[in-house]
Amino acid sequence: MRRPLVFALVMMLGTTAAWADDIADCDQIKNLDLKIRGCSKLIKLNPNDATAYNNRGGAYYRKGDKEQATANYRKALEIDPSDQEAEINIKLLGATP
C-alpha cells in the first residue's frame, strides 16, 4: 500500500514543480521565447488566465510582433474586462480594444 502512495506523491510533486517553472518562465523578462512558452503552457492549463495572456502579449510586443501582442491583450481584456493594463497596451499599439 505504501509504494503506490509514494509513487503518486512523487508524480504530483513533479507536476507541481513543472507548473511552478512555467509560472516563473511566464514572469521572467530576459528570454522572450522562454516567456512565450511558459505563458502558453499556463494558458493551455487555464485558458482563462488573463495575466498569462497579458505577459505573453508583452513578450510578443518586445519581439516586434504587434499583431500577436494585440491578439493576446484583447484576449486578456475579453477574459477580464476590468484589466486596465491590457486596455492601455492595446491603445498604445494603436488598436481599438
Structure, described:
The protein is mostly helical and 97 residues long. It has one domain (2-92): Tetratricopeptide repeat domain (Serine Threonine Protein Phosphatase 5, Tetratricopeptide repeat). The protein contains five helices and no strands. The protein has helices at 2-27, 32-45, 50-62, 66-79, 84-92. Helix 1 crosses helix 2 and helix 2 packs antiparallel against helix 3 (50-62). The longest helix is centred in the N-terminal third of the chain and has 26 residues, at 2-27. The N and C termini lie far apart (56 Å). Residues 5-19 have low confidence and may be disordered.
User: What percent of residues adopt helix (DSSP H or I)?
Assistant: over 70%
Q: Could you tell me the number of beta strands?
A: 0
Based on the coordinates given, report the CATH architecture. Answer: Alpha Horseshoe
Q: Please summarize the sheet with the most strands.
A: none
**Low-confidence parts, pLDDT < 50 over ≥5 residues?**
5-19
CATH topology description: Serine Threonine Protein Phosphatase 5, Tetratricopeptide repeat
What is the terminal separation in angstroms? 56 Å
CATH homologous superfamily designation: Tetratricopeptide repeat domain
Could you give the order of the helices and strands?
HHHHH
The shape is globular
Q: Give the percentage of residues in beta strands.
A: under 5%
What is the residue-mean pLDDT, rounded to a whole number? 83
